[in-house]
Amino acid sequence: MDLMDSKSPKISIVVPVYNEAESLDLLHARIVEVVSSHKITYEIVFVDDGSADDSWSKIEALHRADAAVHGIRFRRNFGKAAALAAGFDQATGEFVITMDADLQDDPQEIPNLIDKLNAGFDVVSGWKKVRHDPWHKTMPSKVFNFLVSWTTGVPLHDHNCGLKAYRREIFDEVQLYGEMHRFVPVLAAARGWKVGEIIVQHHPRKFGYSKYGAKRFIKGLLDLITVYFLTGFRQRPQHLLGSFGLVCLSVGAIGLLILMSLWFITRQSTALDDFHLHQHATFYLSICSLLLGFQMVALGILAELITAISRPAQHPFSIRQRTTTGQPNPPSKADHTSTSDISSHCTHDTL
Question: What span, in angstroms and rounded, lies between the C-alpha atoms of 179 and 162?
Answer without folding.
Answer: 13
